[in-house]
């Protein structure tokens, strides 16, 4: 067991796919085996995009069920819903007052929205709500509330963690040492996980394979992976093949070497390669998929897990928030 506290949040804005599994969920579950870990479903962060409570609730259950079904160790890991801890909203309000507006102006996500508007000839702030603008402050509150040392995130979130660190520094400078300074941990390079069309697997490209798609859908999606037009007998470059790139994340070293050799040798058609890929992914995911489906049919079990997690998280949050309150308001 390390003595570091790890924390990460997952936004309930979509159904997790194989790219999320390989790049984020699987490494997170590994880390939670040896570190005190807080994992929460960032439903407050979803609000700037999704205004339909049913959707947020559905995705919240999906993410909780996925983590439990994949074996997140609930002895080391506290799994909870962000909005269950009121202190995070309170801390966010407090942190607003030590956060320079200029820092928010520099946030990549906000800047991206401005650039999009500019390109479309629209008003600079069109469609930008304050949830988006202050997103990094709420995220800093998430991170600082639980005494976090390490924040495993994708590269796109690195700046947000650096902002949390900056904000902690501004606070400590004014009010004295209150917060630990967190560090981002950008996952070991899993490489780009390709989607059905060979581009990075991403909801915005509509090329994803949902993590727990039913078996028949999984098969259909895999059979739809786009390939070049090489004939079965021709040698193929595994490093340029979406099929092989996905296979690498599910098979063991011997199996990977074997499939690589078959690609390079020629004689393996893409149809057969896809069947091999399907069998492999299905064998890895079928047991957790069953558990996932069971949990999604028993959401009261998920409610209980999330309530237990919230009770644990709240105990830590209350302590931190009290210190902040007394530092700022006496
Ligand atoms: N912003 C993160 C994302 O979009 C989700 C998130 C919210 C988060 N709060 C966090 C991640 C705190 C790490 C730590 O993926």
Walkthrough of the structure:
It catalyses: tRNA(Trp) + L-tryptophan + ATP = L-tryptophyl-tRNA(Trp) + AMP + diphosphate + H(+). Its EC number is 6.1.1.2. This is Tryptophan--tRNA ligase. The protein is mainly alpha-helical and 330 residues long. It contains 14 helices and five strands. The chain has helices at 18-31, 43-46, 53-69, 86-96, 101-105, 108-119, 130-133, 135-145, 158-175, 215-223, 242-247, 253-265, 270-296, 299-329; strands at 5-10, 36-41, 77-81, 150-153, 183-186. The strands form two sheets. Strands 1-2-3 form a three-stranded parallel sheet. A two-stranded parallel ribbon has the order 4-5. 37% of the residues are buried.
The strands making up the biggest β-sheet line up spatially as 1-2-3
Rg for CA atoms? 22 Å
Bound molecules: tryptophan
Largest sheet descriptor: 3 strands, parallel
Instruction: Compute the number of strand runs.
Output: 5
Output the number of helix runs: 14
Q: Return the string of H and E elements.
A: EHEHHEHHHHHEHEHHHHH
Q: What is the residue-mean pLDDT, rounded to a whole number?
A: 96
Strand residue percentage: 5-15%
Structural class: mainly alpha
Low-pLDDT ranges: none
Give the end-to-end Cα distance, rounded to a whole number of Å. 37 Å
Provide the helix percentage.
55-70%
Characterize the overall form.
globular
InterPro entries: aa-tRNA-synth_I_CS, aa-tRNA-synth_Ic, Rossmann-like_a/b/a_fold, Trp-tRNA-ligase, Trp-tRNA_synthetase
Keywords: Aminoacyl-tRNA synthetase, ATP-binding, Ligase, Nucleotide-binding, Protein biosynthesis
GO molecular function, one term: tryptophan-tRNA ligase activity
GO cellular component, one term: cytosol
């Amino acid at each position: 067991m390390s003595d570091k506290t790890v924390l990460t949040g997952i936004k309930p804005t979509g159904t997790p796919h194989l790219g999320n599994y390989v790049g984020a969920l699987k490494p997170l579950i590994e880390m939670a085996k040896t570190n005190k870990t807080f994992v929460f479903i960032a439903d407050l962060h979803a609000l700037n995009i999704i205004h339909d409570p049913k959707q947020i609730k559905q995705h919240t259950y999906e993410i909780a069920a996925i983590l439990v079904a994949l074996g997140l160790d609930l002895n080391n890991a506290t799994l909870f819903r962000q909005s269950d801890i009121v202190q995070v909203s309170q801390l966010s309000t407090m942190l607003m007052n030590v956060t320079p507006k200029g820092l928010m102006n520099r946030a990549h996500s906000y800047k991206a929205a401005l650039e999009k508007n500019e390109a479309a000839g629209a008003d600079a702030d069109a469609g930008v709500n304050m949830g988006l603008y202050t997103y990094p402050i709420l995220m800093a509150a998430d991170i600082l509330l639980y005494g976090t040392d390490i924040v495993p995130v994708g590269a796109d979130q690195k700046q947000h963690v650096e902002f949390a660190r900056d904000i902690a520094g501004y606070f400590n400078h004014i009010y004295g040492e209150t917060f630990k300074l967190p560090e981002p941990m950008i996952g070991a390079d899993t490489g780009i996980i390709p989607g059905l069309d060979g581009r990075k697997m991403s909801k915005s490209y509509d090329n994803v394979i949902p993590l727990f798609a039913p078996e028949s859908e999984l098969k259909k999606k895999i059979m739809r992976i786009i390939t070049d037009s090489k004939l079965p007998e021709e040698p193929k470059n595994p490093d340029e093949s979406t099929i092989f790139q996905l296979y690498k994340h599910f098979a063991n070293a011997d199996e990977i070497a074997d499939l690589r050799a078959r690609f390079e040798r020629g004689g393996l058609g893409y149809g057969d390669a896809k069947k091999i890929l399907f069998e492999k992914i299905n064998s890895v995911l079928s047991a957790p998929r069953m558990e996932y489906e069971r949990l999604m049919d028993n959401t009261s079990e998920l409610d209980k897990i999330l309530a237990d997690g919230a009770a644990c998280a709240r105990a830590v949050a209350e302590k931190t928030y009290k210190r902040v309150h007394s530092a700022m308001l006496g």
